Amino acid sequence: MSRIDLSDIRVVVIDVDGTITDETDLLSIEAIERIRLLERSGFMTILASGNALPVTKALAHYIGSSGPVIAESGCVVDILDDIITFGNPDSVLDALNEIKRLFGNRVRESWSNRYRHVDKVISPTIPKDKLIEIVSKYPDISILDSKFAFHIHPKDVDKFLGVKAISETLNISLDEIAAVGDSELEIRLLKNVGFGAALDNSPDKLKEVADYVTKEKYWRGFIEFTDLLLESRRV
After folding, report:
1. For residue 178, how many other CB atoms are within 10 A of its CB?
2. Does the reported pTM lie above 0.70?
3. At what angle do helices 53-63 and 29-40 cross, to 10 degrees?
4. Where are the alpha helices (DSSP H) in 115-215?
5. Catalytic one of 15, 17, 158, 211
6. Span(s) in the chain for CATH 3.90.1070.10
7. CB-based contact 152:122 (threshold 8 Å)
8. N or C terminus: which one in the chain shows less Cβ crowding within 10 Å?
9. In 10 A of CB 177, how many CB atoms?
10. Helix residue ranges, H only, 43-186
């Protein structure tokens, strides 16, 4: 199942939307309680979200997650209030402005864009293939599909970059990190940490690289994943 002994895991990286929420994207009280149990059991938890930093950091605070925060799907990392960014925000804005020029009021920007450092988000009101065609003119930009929205995002920037920065800054081995998620945005993350879990509601591409695929979907799958980690502490 895992490449390493789960008792070696010290840090748990947790996706938010679709992982600790239900199918309507509402936070699960049970998942919040489980994150707090992980913390009490000696794990450092890290929220890794596609949302803006203020949203993700506030969420981590009120949930009780003690670790750094990864926002904008890896473009922004907050480590002890030191903010690190990845990607070129000017290229992202150029691509967004071109999309707005071509599609006008069909483009619905996320309210969170005003708080974003790099990545920009629009509602899925325009076909994804059209967006990909437009941003193909920008060699350093891609379109990411979070299943909830489209992200205009720097190529080669993902949540794993954030985890790698945290690992190096806090002197934590990647083998001591577990991660859980439900979208293709987590592929490189799950491939490179000690233990990677994909929820049952994940696409096949993520399941193929995971060490473990839960039987349950959404927050119930997250509970199943954490059962494995907590059991390793009891042995």
Report:
1. 30
2. yes
3. 70
4. 128-135, 159-170, 187-192, 204-209
5. 15
6. 87-152
7. yes
8. C
9. 25
10. 53-63, 89-103, 128-135, 159-170
Question: Which parts of the chain sit beneath pLDDT 50?
Answer: 1-2, 235
Asked if residue 184 lies in contact with residue 109, where contact means CB atoms within 8 angstroms, the answer is no
Q: Are 197 and 210 in contact (CB under 8 A)?
A: yes
Q: Which fold has domain 87-152?
A: Hypothetical Protein Ta0175; Chain: A, domain 2 (3.90.1070)
Listed in order, the ranges of the chain carrying CATH 3.40.50.1000 are 9-83+157-231
9-83+157-231 CATH: 3.40.50.1000
- Please, are residues 86 and 154 in contact by the beta-carbon 8 Å criterion? yes
CA dist., res. 109 & res. 122, Å (int): 4
Cα(133)–Cα(136) distance, integer angstroms:
5
Q: How many CB atoms lie within 10 A of CB 209?
A: 16
Residue type, 193: V
CA 132 to chain centre: 21
Active site residue 15: yes
Contacts 24+ apart (CB under 8 A), 130-133: 131/99
Element of type H or E holding 88: none
Q: Is there a contact between 45 and 225 (Cβ–Cβ < 8 Å)?
A: no
